Amino acid sequence: MELVTPGFGLLFWMVLSFTTVFILLKKYAWGPILTMIKEREDTIEKALLSAEKAKAEMAALTSTNEKLLQEARNERDKMLKEAAATKDAIINEARAKASEEATRIITKGREEIKNDKMAAIVELKNQVGSLSLEIAEKLLKKQLDNQDAQKDLVNRELENIKLN
Q1: What are the backbone dihedrals phi and psi of residue 155, each rounded to the nearest 5 degrees, phi first?
Q2: Tell me, what's the pLDDT at 101?
Q3: Other residues' Cβ atoms within 10 Å of the Cβ of residue 153
Q4: 112-122: b (≥16 Cβ within 10 Å) or e
Q5: What 3-state class would DSSP assign to 13?
Q6: What is the Cα–Cα distance from 43 to 51, expressed in whole angstroms?
Q7: Per-residue pLDDT for 148 more than 90?
């Protein structure tokens, strides 16, 4: 039983050494240890606060970046729509001008063709008229060489005039 219950001397020296070590630790070690622990705790808390602040700033920057990105997309879409509208307007205007020009050219061509046709008809009539006169003149000269033929022609023409 002696092993289970310590003696008074052993107990005294154990308490005395524990108290001495405790006082020495309290005086020289616990102060600096507790100060270092407090400083470490403050540093960790500052780092956590700084991390929270950085996280909030990142969230704000991310939100701002998303807004800017959305605005840029909207502006790009707006510019693309305006460009498409301008392109369509230019194409439609060019088509209208081309159509007007084609109509004008066709009309001018038709007028030129009509004028050329009329000039050709007039020239043809003049040539036909002059040829007819030449033929008639030659025929009349040939037929009027004879006196009887002249009288016969005059009588026929008088009969035609009376009938008409």
Answers
A1: -65, -40
A2: 94
A3: 14
A4: eeeeeeeeeee
A5: helix
A6: 12
A7: no
Report how far apart, in Å, the C-alpha atoms of 163 and of each of 35, 156, 158, 159, 160 are.
152, 11, 9, 6, 5
Residue type, 124: L
Q: Residues 58-80: pLDDT tens digits?
A: 999 999 999 999 999 999 999 99
Q: Is the pLDDT of residue 50 over 90?
A: yes
93 vs 29, 87, 97, 162, CA distance in Å?
93, 10, 6, 70
Write out the two tokens for 7. 């003696």
Helix, strand, or coil (residue 80): helix
What does the alpha-carbon distance between residue 64 and residue 58 come to, in Å, rounded to a whole number? 10
First to last CA, the chain: 179
pLDDT of 3 reads: 61
Q: What tokens does 70 get?
A: 């959305």
